[in-house]
Fold these 2 entries.
Entry 1:
Amino acid sequence: MYSLFVASFLLVFGENTPQIATQALEQLYGRTGMLIGSLIPIFAILTSYIGLGLAQLDNMEEYLKMNRKLAWAITVLPPLALYMGGIRDFVEVLGAAGSTGDFMAFIIMPVVLYITYKLRPAFFR
């Protein structure tokens, strides 16, 4: 939906496309245009977040065999804690997510793999 929104602006305004599309809608349709122009990207982003959150919740339930309440808490509480902790800027959220992902991929996972390798039964070696 967001791609259609962007494409329509490029087709209508051509080289004069403003950097912030909602400003153009506001110029054309007033406050109503700004409101509608702001809602389209918000819905596009929110549906993505909701879809990813539900997928994460289902993965924890199905593959990790967690109960639904614990999976929900693990899915919802860390982002909520980041927000309540003062990280409200999108770039800061990306930085926190990247740092956490790097920590998991380059520190936690190698340690877990090493421990798993050392603890596995002899007949698997």
Entry 2:
Amino acid sequence: MQKALTLTRTSIGKKALVAITGAILFAFVIGHLIGNLQVFLGPEHLNAYAEFLHSMPKALWTARAVLLLALIVHVGLTVQLAVANSAARPNRYKVSSDVGDQGPLMRYARKTMILSGPIVFAFIAFHLAHLTIGADVIQGYRFDPHDVYLNVVYGFRSVWVTSFYVFANILLGFHLYQGGQSLLQSLGLRSPRFDQRVRGAAMAFAAFVTLGNVLIPLTIMARVVGGDVPDLPALPPTP
């Protein structure tokens, strides 16, 4: 703990912690997506997966605590570094030809990095409230902790919920694209010889996560998934 606190006192230490927590979150993102993709296999598979996770409450809550801590440290230190960099150099440095030739996608990812972090943080908070805690985000439906499949289907039949998920996951994709490259650089593991491969791997990873996360709500909204689930009954008119 003392060593971790010491790291937060220097910019190099902060960047290292951002990279380490980013790696933890990267692992979670891919594992979370693979689990959620079971919605395409039907209610039995998704509900069985959820039941399996909840059969290990100690491991589940330990993982949640580690992820929450990693997320808070990652976002907090990223904001601190951005503020410190802005204060240290109000005028941008001239970029090298390597950076300048990275293309519009890379430049956009770099510019939105500081904004996408807090937005994704807010998205995760909403996601937990929506599908883990069971907040009433859909009128007329009561959250069922034992039927994850129905929660997901009814949740993503809401236009505003699906729109928010798609928007947040596109930002997450840009964040993963830029963060995947920055992670290796912050840990001193990046070499110019492998830059193109690193960029290609980061783009493939970000595209896979974004496409998978976006397909789930969109296919539910289009009734490709869960089409046999009846609509919620109409609410009685308010007097």
